Amino acid sequence: MNPVAVWYFECVNLYKILCPHKVKAMQSRHVFKKYKKGDFIYVSEDVPTHIYLIADGRIRIGRYLPDGQEVTRAILVRGEIFGELALAGEEKRSEFAVVEEDATVCTLTIQDLQQLMYGDRELNFKILKLIGLRLMKVERKLESLVFKDARTRIVEFLKDAAEWKGLKAGYETIIYTRLTHKDIATLTGTSRQTVTTVLNDLQDRKVINFDRRRILIYEMNALQ
Description:
Strand content: 25-35%
Mean pLDDT: 80
CATH class of the largest domain: Mainly Beta
Largest sheet: 6 strands, antiparallel
Low-confidence stretches: 1-13
Number of helices: 7
CATH topology of the largest domain: Jelly Rolls
Order of helices and strands: HHEEEEEEHHHEEHHEE
Number of domains: 2
Shape: globular
Number of strands: 10
C-alpha cells in the first residue's frame, strides 16, 4: 500500500474532534479569536504555546529558506489545524502563520491538548499521522524546489492533490478545491502566469478540465 495514502489525514475535520467549545470541561474558558487578512498569528522564532483550529477562513503556513526565500508550506481552510509541531518538542517556531482570508480560529494550549490525548489512543494516533504527513510534505516540497522545473512541480502538485483529496469516477479523478492559480503558484514556487499556462496547455490537450471549484483529471496516466 502507498505509504503516503496510509499517512494521509488532512481530509479529516479535526475541528470537530478537538475544539474546546465541544468539550464540556473546557467550554467555560474557551473563546474564538478573529483575525483580519494579513494578520500574523505567529512568526518564526516565537515560543509555541498553542495549536490552532480553523473555524472559518484561510491560513497560509510558510517558512524562510537560508537564502531568505519565502516558501509556502500549506494553505489551510475550515476544519484544519496548525502549529501542531509544538507537540513534537519544537522549542521555537520554524515557520509563520498568516491570514489569507478573514478567519475565526479556535486556540488550544499544549496542556489542554495533552489532557485530551491522555488515555485516548485513537486521538494520539491521529495526531501522530498528521505530524508525520506534514513533515513528509515539507521534505518533498523542498526537494522539488531544488531539483525540478516549474512545469514538473505543477504537474506533481496535481498528482498529489488527486491522490490525497481526489474522488475517483472510473478513469476520471475530481479534485474539489478553492485554490486559485495564485495559490497553486505559491504552493509550487512558480508564478501565476506559469500555472495558468500549464493548466491551459493540459486542458487544450484534454488531459484536465478546470473551473473555480474543481479540477477534473480525465486519466492520471496522461498527466505529465
